[in-house]
Amino acid sequence: xxxxxxxxxxxEVSKHGIGSLANSMERGRDTRLKILLDNGIDPExxxxxxxxxxxxxxKDIAQKIGxxxxxxxxxxxxxxxxxxxxxxxxxxxxxxxxxxxMNHRLNGEIMFNPSxxxxxxxxxxxxxxxxxxxxxxxVMICTNPYPSKFDEGILTEVVRRFKPTGAREKIELDLxxxxxxxxxxxxxxxxxx
Length: 193
Known about the structure:
It is built from 7 helices and 10 strands. By secondary structure, the protein is α+β, with helices and mostly antiparallel strands. The chain starts with 10 loop residues before the first strand and ends with a strand. β3 and β4 (109-110) form a beta hairpin.
């Protein structure tokens, strides 16, 4: 999936997801809120907002105030969006795709139903391709329309919260693989702790 382009114009994102953009940090909050409003999103009104408008706001943030803000917004996702219960790092990384779908809906239906496990396609995925607790390494493939730096921020915060005590996390884009930043369909992140 290309960065900043919703493949299905009927997909919406929850106000909880939008909260990470608005509330990622106090500094610059008014600027980020203005960018949301300029893109037709009022985070104070409505439970759901068009995904494409939200992606447009991400693109504006990257261009106007810098790509590092996308990383910071990604780190704030766990404080704002809905997540299923998680007890350890492997479960947290595996749950990212479920959380992603829980915070989006298509034609009025939330894209993951926890009561029956049904997932609706249309927004891509977060796929844990490898998890090795022994070598303390994992690989996450992100196939979605969100910017790569945003995904890196989410992964960084998930790993920080669920890694073993005393471990240091490292999350880096695998430059040997395709990247949405350069027109690819996905981004692959190498994770170690």
